[in-house]
Amino acid sequence: MHYLEPNEKFPPITEADEQGLLAIGGDLSISRLIYAYNHGIFPWYDASQPLLWWSPDPRMVLFPEKLKVSKSMKQLLRKKKFTVSFNTHFNAVIEACAQIRRDGQHGTWITREMIASYNSLHKLNIAQSVEVWENGDLVGGLYGIYLKDKNVFCGESMFTRVSNASKYGFITLVNKLKEEGVKLIDCQVYTRHLESLGAEEIPRDEFLSYLGFSS
């Protein structure tokens, strides 16, 4: 396993292990994060671990035109059950994502250092958020990294306080990104929930081709 010094470059993606772990250590500097996402690498760790960098093979992605919307969700969208905004409360969204307790996780992987770094990326219009509102209350949302020059959006995390709120926001975002010409949404790793929305696994080499790189 490769251990990164603070200013050291990432090793070749082909050095990632079977789980997709590429490197340990380094930092969450803006330049490193931008480089990482543009090369198919993302950080994922919790406060008890060192900084871990991943590039899994296969990669979970959603092609916008393959989005699956259930009948019940179509009804909620027609009724305009929630109000959706974009990039108005980024810090509130990432803080909420950090606070949500998830099955199989003993703590959050969204550390204070990560929140600070992604807020800096948001100020550069690279990290973006989706807010879902009900009666003036923030009831769901998600955030991710928008690689506009590559027509790729990298989803990071979502939260919900009301049933279907985050899914409502995600579907609204996908439709918006489709209109903007986005070709692929990076979902990183497999979950049954993402699969139910139309996401699928593709080889890492195919994913990297959308970023303009190969392993």
From TrEMBL:
The keyword Acyltransferase applies. This is Leucyl/phenylalanyl-tRNA--protein transferase. Signal peptide: none annotated. The gene is aat. It is found in: Cytoplasm. It is an enzyme of class 2 (transferase). Its main location: cytoplasm. Its EC number is 2.3.2.6. Functions in the N-end rule pathway of protein degradation where it conjugates Leu, Phe and, less efficiently, Met from aminoacyl-tRNAs to the N-termini of proteins containing an N-terminal arginine or lysine. Belongs to the L/F-transferase family. HAMAP family: Leu_Phe_trans. Keywords: Acyltransferase, Cytoplasm, Transferase. SUPFAM superfamilies: Acyl-CoA N-acyltransferases (Nat). It comes from the Bacteria. It catalyses: L-phenylalanyl-tRNA(Phe) + an N-terminal L-alpha-aminoacyl-[protein] = an N-terminal L-phenylalanyl-L-alpha-aminoacyl-[protein] + tRNA(Phe); N-terminal L-lysyl-[protein] + L-leucyl-tRNA(Leu) = N-terminal L-leucyl-L-lysyl-[protein] + tRNA(Leu) + H(+); N-terminal L-arginyl-[protein] + L-leucyl-tRNA(Leu) = N-terminal L-leucyl-L-arginyl-[protein] + tRNA(Leu) + H(+). GO terms for molecular function: leucyl-tRNA--protein transferase activity.
